[in-house]
């Protein structure tokens, strides 16, 4: 009985969390074959100006991201830090203790 009550409570909690988010969306989930209902009057007004959006589109066109997105290709991840050189990686490995080296070999395989 307790597990049924817990399941009911969790279901109601999930519904309470999802309901406000759905109320502000244009599309609402609906049962049956349709799957959704459309409510254009729920559309939130945007604070962005047309010129801002057009500027962003032009910038995306110039840097190539618009072409990638239009083909459904994922955008490359931006680099956060410069990559290490081969010498830096080798020096880092040589500076490790034997225990750290063993842990890396166990995790990644011996590697020769």
Automatic annotation (TrEMBL):
Keywords: Signal. It comes from the Bacteria. Residues 1-25 form the signal peptide. This is DUF4148 domain-containing protein. The lineage of its organism: Bacteria, Pseudomonadati, Pseudomonadota, Betaproteobacteria, Burkholderiales.
């Amino acid at each position: 009985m307790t597990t049924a009550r817990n399941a009911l409570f969790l279901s109601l909690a999930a519904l309470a969390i999802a309901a406000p988010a759905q109320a502000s969306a244009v599309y609402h989930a609906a049962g049956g074959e349709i799957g959704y209902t459309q409510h254009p009057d729920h559309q939130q007004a945007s604070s962005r100006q047309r010129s801002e959006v057009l500027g962003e589109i032009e910038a995306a066109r110039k840097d190539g991201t618009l072409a990638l997105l239009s083909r459904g290709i994922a955008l490359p991840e931006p680099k956060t830090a410069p990559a290490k050189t081969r010498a830096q990686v080798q020096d880092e490995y040589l500076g490790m203790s034997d225990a750290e080296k063993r842990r890396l070999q166990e995790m990644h395989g011996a590697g020769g």
